[in-house]
Amino acid sequence: MNLVNLKDNDDQVGFAEAVKKGLGKHQGLYFQKEFAQLEDVDALLELPLVERSQRVLSHLIGDELPEGLLDEIVSTAFSFEAPLAKVSDDIYCLELFHGPTLAFKDFGGRFMAQCLANISEGQKITILTATSGDTGAAVAHAFYGIDNIQVVILFPEGKVSPLQEKLFSTLDRNIHTVSINADFDACQKLVKTAFDDPEVRDGLHLNSANSINISRLLAQVCYYFEAVAQLPKDEREKAVFAVPSGNFGNLTAGMIAKSLGLPIKRFIAATNANDTVPRYLQTGEWEPAPTVATMSNAMDVSQPNNWPRIEALVENGQVDKEDLTGEMVDEEYTSLAMKKLQSLGYISEPHAAVAYRALSNQLEEGEVGVFLGTAHPAKFKETVETVLGQPLNLPKPLADASNKPSLAVSVENDYEALKAFMLEKLGS
Ligand SMILES: *Cc1c(COP(=O)(O)O)cnc(C)c1O
User: Fold this and answer.
1) Is the CB of 245 under 6 A from ligand 1?
2) Number of domain units in the chain
3) Would you call 186 helix, strand, or coil by DSSP?
4) Fewer CB atoms < 10 Å away: N or C end of the chain?
5) Is 266 inside any structural domain?
6) Where is pLDDT greater, at 163 or 143?
7) Is any atom of ligand 1 closer than 6 Å to the C-beta of 247?
8) Strand partners, 152
């Protein structure tokens, strides 16, 4: 794989290097200029998830990992299913929440952890990542017990659902959680500052595990293939994907899948009130507003850090600009969409509901819609119960975590304070 820093064309690395570094110089994202089409998409769609994903990822990554290793990584990481649930005549939900932390981020998180553990060969590494909810849990669980890799997770205090918080803040050993009294964008800024600080970056061998890491994106490409594989054959060419978006890693992965030749007709970028992208697609003006808190809090992001990759895909002619529309769904319509789904016999949660609403609004005659179910409804138990007026049971991973005490430490929204904490805790 030849990955180019989108802020500095001279900074070019292979897959392993990009996984280890996360971000390049000037905080630039690594990305591939061109994705070669897969030749045998129809045949691939006949294969089971793990086998197909091994082929897709080996096409993307090439021979940089020793033979057999990639296959092993994929089968360890993708240890759960992604069923396509039929919700109405022409709409399906791709359920991405059957992994250990009940959110789609398990795909990227587990694949990345396996890649890094194998690539680093015992070298000491510190993962520093900011989470607005589900990344933290997925990353914490994916790396838990890999002893040469320490994990520091920053999260906005009080802005993550209590159950979600339990899923990442209750792990001990190599997992350290830090609450910051500010919003997610502020947490993300602290992470970026740390990566610009040589003392911390080099001293602690920093690596970022949020959706800017290329390995996470590549893993996510695989479930788009899984969705199309499960569609009836005569519906495959008409599929429109609605992606509930925050940092836009999920949508980037979908667009890579399309670049590889997967038949996806078009995409809808669905956001909550943090609608920088839908407004940009309408007006051409990039005008991030202050982040606002919503029910779909994993999407409370007003400066989505994967957007430059989507721009690059469009600029390089990998996907057409016309194949992407946006839609903002406010809190009232999010609740209405959850109730509508309930009336169809399908219990969902706010993130997926945002995508469902955007999809049912924009789906045209002759198209088939797939919205991504990014989290298990029980992860947002309080909200879902309030909106739907019906009690939810906790699946086992959540019930177990909810009984443990939080181990999170609170640190001010100040880089020097965070630096002192990290050097004391992890410096040798
Ligand atoms: C992270 C997350 C999203 C947003 O995904 P991005 O790749 O950041 O756009 C949507 N829904 C849920 C439940 C999430 O955890």
Assistant:
1) yes
2) 1
3) helix
4) C
5) yes
6) 143
7) yes
8) 128, 176
100-137 pLDDT, tens digit per residue, is: 999 999 999 999 999 999 998 778 999 999 987 778 88
- Asked if residue 142 lies in contact with residue 131, where contact means CB atoms within 8 angstroms, the answer is no
Nearest-CA residue for atom 8 of ligand 1: 247
Residue 271 Cα distances to 155, 283, 380, 423, angstroms: 20, 16, 17, 37
Supply 395's token pair.
């699946």
Question: Is 162 within a domain?
Answer: no
Determine how many CB atoms are found less than 10 A away from the CB of residue 16. Answer: 18
Q: Which of 359, 361, 367, 95 is nearest to 237 (CA)?
A: 367
Assign 348 to helix, strand or coil: coil
Q: Locate tokens 């999920």: which residue?
A: 250
Name the strands in the sheet holding 324-328, side by side, starting at the edge strand that comes first in the sequence: 84-88, 91-95, 368-373, 239-244, 266-271, 324-328
CA 246 – ligand 1 centroid, Å: 5
User: CATH number, domain at 370?
Assistant: 3.40.50.1100
pLDDT in tens, 37-57: 999 999 999 999 999 999 999
How do residues 2-50 score in pLDDT, each as one tens digit? 999 999 999 999 999 999 888 888 889 999 989 999 999 999 999 999 9
The verdict on residue 16 lying in a domain is no
Owning domain of residue 244: 81-101+214-388
Indicate the burial class of 76 (C-beta count within 10 angstroms; 0-12, 13-18, 19 or more): middle
Contact 234, 344 (CB under 8 A): no
Question: Looking at the DSSP assignment, which residues form a beta bridge with residue 125?
Answer: 149
Instruction: State if residue 250 touches ligand 1 by the CB under 6 angstroms criterion.
Output: yes
Structural domain includes residue 242: yes
CB atoms within 10 A of CB 182: 18
CB 330 within 8 A of CB 350: no
At residue 211, does pLDDT exceed 70?
no
Supply φ then ψ for residue 371, to 5 degrees: -110, 150
pLDDT at 271: 98
- Contact assessment for residue 325 and residue 275, using Cβ atoms and an 8 Å cutoff: no
Alpha helices in 22-104 (DSSP H): 41-45, 49-61, 69-77
Q: How far is the CA of 101 from the centre of ligand 1 (A)?
A: 13
